[in-house]
Amino acid sequence: MKSNIHTMSSSSQCPICVESYDDPNNICSTICGHVFHNSCLSEWLEHSDTCPMCNKRNPAPHRIFIDLRVDQNNSNEKPAKLVIKGIPPRLLKAPFFKPVLELMSVMQVHISESDIKTITRIANTLHVTFRQVEHMEAVLKNKHKLKKNPTTSAIVIHEVVDPEVKALFQYSHKLKRIGYKIFFIRDNKVFVKKEQTDSEIEISSKETVNRIYDGNRWNTPSAPSLYAISSSTSNQIPVEYNNEVHRYINDSD
Predict the structure, then answer these.
(1) What is the pLDDT of residue 176?
(2) By the 8 A CB rule, do 78 and 189 touch?
(3) How far is it, in rounded angstroms, from Cα 100 to Cα 94?
(4) What is the pTM assigned to this prediction?
(5) What is the rounded distance in angstroms from the CA atom of residue 169 to the CA atom of residue 177?
(6) CB 3.0 to 4.6 Å from 51: which of 56, 134, 161, 184, for a disulfide?
(7) H or E element that contains 37
(8) What is the three-class DSSP state of 7?
């Protein structure tokens, strides 16, 4: 256990005592989302009624359950995290595995407790980290099944999105002007397409958006040129290439 803890980042330390979380039964979180040793926070709250990190009053600490084991084979992979909102408060009681696994059953996703790395409650939401990206993808693929069940229809599940990806997703909506209708995020990557049957295009940067926009807008129908007029037969005649038109305009001066 100790060798695994040494591989964890410095952020995996209690801000009060600045020591690692070596006991999964001695970890708690405040309602404002900060994590501490349960023993450290209990002692702190004997002398103060504010969160040690943000000074929020009455932080309402609650136990959280974290698997402190580090998977060395997947240590470089981006965590597979989901946020679950809308679970009735009466069900948000530790251990949080129970409501999560019940949702997995409704979605017909075969995930066990050992497939879940961490579950953290922040206010009335659960933040779930899976050991493998495939587990998260299975949940996202089947989450629509929750809407078919009256007891779970109000529950919302979405992937945790990096702020940079969220900003890029919002910027990509510029492509609506040239006919793109479908915008979505998968594996913290932005994708767009015009129709459901079209191939998806990955948006890796704002430059990608601008390149698509500039390359397509010239292909869209535009208004007639200012350098064109209509004759009596409704044919458009470029002024600069028709001497008779020039003479007509000059004679009218």
Answers:
(1) 93
(2) no
(3) 11
(4) 0.46
(5) 15
(6) 56
(7) strand 35-37
(8) coil
Phi, psi of 178 (to 5 degrees): -115, 25
Over residues 50-96, the pLDDT tens digits come to: 898 888 888 888 877 665 554 444 444 556 889 999 888 877 777 78
Give the integer Cα–Cα distance in Å for 171 and 34: 31
DSSP 72: G
CB 194 within 8 A of CB 159: no
**Is the Cβ–Cβ distance between 102 and 126 less than 8 Å?**
no
Residue in the structure block whose two tokens are 């702190």: 44
Single-letter amino acid, residue 165: V
What phi and psi, each to the nearest 5 degrees, are found at residue 238?
-65, 125
12-67 CATH fold? Herpes Virus-1 (3.30.40)
Distance between CA 135 and CA 115 in Å, rounded?
Answer: 8
In the chain, residues under CATH classification 3.30.40.10 are 12-67
Hey, what's the torsion of the CAs at 56, 164, 79, 201, to 10 degrees?
150
Token pair recorded at residue 163: 């702020």
The verdict on whether omega for the bond into residue 89 sits within 30 degrees of 0, i.e. cis, is no
| CA-angle at 203, arms to 84 and 220, nearest 5° | 120
Count how many Cα atoms sit within 13 Å of the Cα of residue 192 in the half-sphere of its side chain. 21
CATH no. of 81-159:
3.30.70
Q: Which residues contact 114 (CB under 8 A, 6 or more apart)?
A: 131
